[in-house]
Structure formats: C-alpha cells, structure tokens
Amino acid sequence: MPIATVNPATGQTLKTFEAHTAEQVERILARAHATNGALAATTFAQRGAWMRRAADLLDAEAAELAALIATEMGKTLPTAAYEVAKSARGMRHYAEHAEAYLADERPVPPAEVGASDARVVYQPLGTILAVMPWNYPFWQVIRFAAPALMAGNTALLKHASSVPQCALYLGELFTRAGFPAGAFQTLLLEAARTTRLLDDPRVRAVTLTGSVGAGAAVAEAAGRNIKKSVLELGGTDVFIVLPSADVAKAAEAGVASRTQNSGQSCIAAKRFYVHEAVYAEFEERFVAGMAAQKAGDPFAADTSFGPLATEQGRADAHALVEDARSKGATVRTGGAVPDGPGWFYPATVLTGVTPRMRIYREECFGPVACLYPVRDLAEAVERANDSPFGLSSSVWTSDPDEITALAARIEAGAVFVNGNTASFPQLPFGGIKDSGYGRELSGFGIREFVNVKTVWVS
C-alpha cells in the first residue's frame, strides 16, 4: 500500500510520501538507542512537565488536527476533535500518575525472605516499536506513547500508510514539547519491512493494534527474537439485551455503538443478542435508528458518520454483507454501495445470520450489525462466547443477578453494563483469544514495557 493521504470522501490522492530508506531507518534507530540512557535518567517530574506541554500543544492545535484526521481517514469533524481532546487528557493522566504506577513496592516484610530490604522496582526496557492503525490515528498512538515515555522508554512509531501526516505530526510532537530528540520518532515504512526491525537488538519490545494476520506476523518475529509483545487485534463484540433493560435506551446506544467511527472500531458492538420477549420492540427501534443515520461529508454538520477509510475496507465490508445475503440472510436496511465518489457505506442491519455465513465469525469493519433473538441469558452467553474473539461486550439489564452472571461468564477483556464499551486512561484495555494479549492504559498498561526487577539486600 502506498504511503499517501487519500481523501476517503472523494477518493482523491492529496499527497504522497516516500518510505524511509535503509540509511534513514538506521539513523532513526541509532538516535533512539543513543537517547535511552539520557531519558531513563530524567525524573518523573521532568518527563511529566514535557508530557503536559505536549498535551497543551494538542489542545492549541486541535482545530487543525481535527481537520487533518477527518481528511486522512474520514471521521466526522466533531469526533475527530473529541479524539484529539481525549488524547490530551490521556497524556495528562500519565503525567500525573506514572510515578505512582511505577513506585517501588515491598510485597512482603524483608525478614520473610531473609533480607534487611526486599523490594520490586520498575525500570524502562529501552526502545519500543509501536505498529498502529488508522482508525484512531491519534488516540491509538497516544495511549501507547504517553505511558511508554513516562516510564523512560524511547519509542518508534510505524503508523498506518494511509495516515502519514498524522504520523509525521506525532513524530515531532514530543520533541517540540521538550523530550530529547530521539525519544519518540516516526518511521515511514511499508508493512513488509516492519517485522525486520524486531531482528535488531536495539528494539527491545513491540506493541501492535491491527488485524489478526498482522498481529500473528509481529508476534512471530518477536517470539523468534525473544522480545515482549502486546497485541490488540480487534473483535466481534456482543451487545446483549435482556427483558429488564430499558429497550429504547439500549436500541439508541446500539445504533451509536455500531455507527461510531463509521463502524470502524474494534470495540463497536457487532453481534446483537436480544431476548425474544423484547426482540420485536428492539428490532423495530434499532432498524429505524440505523436507517436514519446519514453517511456523508465528514465536514458537514448534518452527517452522522463519514466514509470508510479505504476503498478496500468498503469492499471487504460489502463482501461480508453479500455473502450473508446470498446464503439467506435478510438485509433490513442498507447493504448497497452508493453511487458517486468516496468510500461511503450505509448503516446496515442483517437478520437471519447463520454459522454458514462469513460474518457470523469474521469481524466486519464497517457500519453493519447482525441481530439475533435468544431464548434466555444462557443462550445469550453461549452464543456470545461462540467466537474466536474476546475484546469487550455491552450488556443491558437491571437485574443484579443477571449482571453478576454476565460479568462472570462472558469471555472478554471487559463487560460494560447498561453502557457502550469505551476506553479510559484509568482502566485497563485489551482482550483474550484472537483479540490479543497484554493490556493498555491504567497501571497495567505502563507496566507492560518495564523491567520488573527484584532488589534483595542481605
């Protein structure tokens, strides 16, 4: 895939970029490696001051950055502005809390282990490679960069080829804020060259957000080189509605979840399991809500959601819909590629989906929902867990026993009750099964890329 800004609302190529040469990559990597000691020697207070300054720069340049995000990957201007603001909040969170997250610990009285002192310390690993996707071109990067830098690591960003201007901005942001020049740098690389970086001993670990295939390739390279990896690989998140739920509120939330970011969100609800007692009401409200969503110009005030980010992404989403339709599924709304320029796709609802259809198990990265009736909670859980993925889930009920059962039995990295899945700097984020391993955000996230060292003193 070429490294280029292609406006997904028009299909026009606005700007192209040359990939870094082997010599340029070497200079960038050498600079990161040379900066490790200097950055690790700084205090949390100093790194925190730089991080706050970087957050201030995001806030000051928010309008320009929101327009850039909307242009490069197609999300609406308000949601792009929200992403920039959320990124700044995440940076300030780690500026404030990193020292406490990584404070020395004394898990047992020293005498229990025959010592005068026994403690656990957290120290940076060195240079970390981040392979990031286009769907949240700032937030996905910041939720790695803020904890990694505050822990004292240096970082290399290999961003998606379709958001090069976002990548280049981020590559300069932290240096502008005061971090040493080699602390955070962007690499413009084709995907095929990325895994080779893990063969270099100066790269100590890797984190990736992306497809299962990309994650497997990175994990294989990391494993071959005995290097730590963290993977977030998407999901087919469930949305369960039981009879005690506020059905109108649940349907409204379901529409918002499935169409957020034009459906290009790993934590968007994709499989809707609704108790048969309230299925008819939910279906009517949900289908009507989806049909009312307008896909349009990301800069227009009346647009519900923008185009899909890439032409291939739209083709992939439509192929899943057509496969389901050809095998007997009913398209309740949407399901047709519109005429005209750009990579738009309507909000779509499928019913009658069966295991014979690809979309039953595959992740659809577009505004397409699959709606299923279920007899009871047990069937909802069984079908929810019948998936290779396990990222998050959203469940709707006012019954305390049902909340307890769902929280315990759903196989996922998170269960959100009576609300849509979201990410917060204060809470860990990540999945199980094919959704990946490791955690981002919170204290768990910052501890992924540190050396957990025992210090024992006789």
Task: Give a brief rundown of this model.
With 458 residues, the chain is α/β, with parallel strands linked by helices. It has helices at 22-40, 44-60, 62-73, 77-101, 139-150, 164-176, 191-194, 212-224, 247-259, 279-291, 311-326, 377-385, 400-409, 442-446; strands at residues 4-7, 12-16, 117-124, 127-131, 154-158, 184-187, 203-209, 228-232, 238-241, 271-275, 330-333, 348-351, 368-374, 389-390, 393-396, 416-417, 432-433, 436-437, 450-457.
Whole-number total of structural domains: 2
The CATH first-level class of the largest domain comes to Alpha Beta
Total of helices: 14
- Order of strands across the main sheet: 11-12-13-10-9-15-16
- Please state the oligomeric state of the protein chains shown: single chain
Helix percent reads 25-40%
Under the CATH scheme, the architecture of the largest domain is 3-Layer(aba) Sandwich
DSSP strand content: 15-25%
InterPro entries: Ald_DH/histidinol_DH, Ald_DH_C, Ald_DH_N, AldDh_AldH, Aldehyde_DH_dom, ALDH_GabD1-like, GABD/Sad-like
Family: Belongs to the aldehyde dehydrogenase family.
Protein name: NADP-dependent succinic semialdehyde dehydrogenase
Domain Aldehyde dehydrogenase: 3-455
